[in-house]
């Protein structure tokens, strides 16, 4: 007989909370009939300033099967929270989940940029990434390095050796689900190895809270600037102060001279 579900939930509080959050978001998206293109991450929307999509894309899912696959894998990977004696544990899980969400999203955009600008593959301009897979693949990779004897259980039926799981899953999903984001999954693996090998390290409560604060700030301000949600209670004032001198270049013969127009002093103040 296995352990009672409530006991396992208490043993995996962070991953259980994320599973609950992703499930709630999926139900909300279905109820409001929101298309994944409205919350997903693409190169085109990113260059338009929709930075908030790095977060919304990670926690949104296209279908119930997509949600179940990712959450089933995440539940199995929650064992990381129980490995405090190996330098992992709940705090490690929370700290580096933040890193995985942000860096894997940035890495996806970087890969799209290279494919579009260097190789002229305009197709990737509108490819939209959605789902928690990047983070799942990142944790698969970290666990494969830290505890290679573990197994990844999917749906309580399929069991994979964790040491091979990242690349097995990468190939498997690319074949079975052709529309799955190969670049997104690979980005999660790359960030996962960077964390597991200590290339990205030093996260603690201070840096996690600081990082979370910046994420929230950029999220809210980008929502405001793009008009995705009406945030009329937030006002973003222009930086330009008319009392400052204006600087420009004026042609003079074969060279240029610097010209400054000093406006009358109107006083200065902070709002």
Automatic annotation (TrEMBL):
Residue ranges constituting the Peptidase S54 rhomboid domain according to the UniProt record: 49-200
One of the record's GO cellular component terms: membrane
Transmembrane segments: 12-29, 50-73, 93-115, 127-145, 157-177, 182-200, 206-223
Keywords: Membrane, Transmembrane, Transmembrane helix
SUPFAM superfamilies for this protein: Rhomboid-like
Pfam families in the record: Rhomboid (PF01694)
Membrane-protein topology: Multi-pass membrane protein
Predominant cellular place of this UniProt entry's protein: membrane
A molecular-function term among this protein's GO annotations: serine-type endopeptidase activity
Source superkingdom: Eukaryota
InterPro entries associated with the record: Peptidase_S54_rhomboid_dom, Rhomboid-like_sf, Rhomboid_protease_S54
Localization per Swiss-Prot or TrEMBL: Membrane
Family: Belongs to the peptidase S54 family.
Name this polypeptide is given: RHOMBOID-like protein 13
Species in which this protein is naturally found: Ananas comosus (Pineapple)
